[in-house]
From TrEMBL:
Residues 1-140 form the DUF6590 domain. Pfam families: DUF6590. It comes from Polyplosphaeria fusca. InterPro entries: DUF6590. This is DUF6590 domain-containing protein.
Length: 151
């Protein structure tokens, strides 16, 4: 989905990768990007979701992240091996496989952040990536609930 949020105290301007920076009301800066999510719960008019990001292809090695809150997420067929962890990544959770929809693929550095839930309204335009593999749904639920309990 198209995701827009404030930049915060840093104001880099311009563009970076697939992210675009814009000046909005009150002289503030916002950035927009296409962001991927896993739906955890449907809550009626919105869904509780957790983000999938590559962190500019750094996976969970990006400084400031909590590696214990992250896991590998990948598209593939049953029996396909997940992507390898990056050097010094420190992820201990089992990978989550997604059955691709219409050829959509996740980059090998894609990581799911169990510790950062978002509310995504149902009236926004989205593109389906696929479905979490049936054999991994229980892991997704356990990892999310455990991470939220520890937060």
């Amino acid at each position: 989905m198209l995701w827009i949020e404030p930049v915060g105290l840093e104001n880099p301007g311009g563009t970076r990768g697939s992210t675009h920076f814009s000046t909005i009301s009150y002289g503030e800066t916002a950035y927009s990007e296409i962001r991927r999510f896993v739906v955890i719960r449907n809550r009626g008019s919105f869904s509780q979701c957790i983000p999938i990001q590559t962190y500019r292809r750094r996976g969970a090695t990006k400084p400031g992240l909590v590696p214990e809150d992250h896991g590998v997420i990948y598209t593939g067929e049953r029996g396909d091996d997940p992507p390898e962890l990056l050097e010094n990544e420190g992820i201990s959770k089992s990978p989550i496989r997604v059955d691709s929809a219409a050829g959509e693929l996740l980059e090998p550095e894609s990581r799911i952040n169990y510790g950062k839930p978002y509310a995504v309204e149902h009236n926004v335009k989205v593109l389906e990536i696929g479905q979490v593999a049936p054999e991994h749904i229980h892991l997704l639920q356990i990892y999310f609930e455990d991470t939220m309990r520890l937060a």
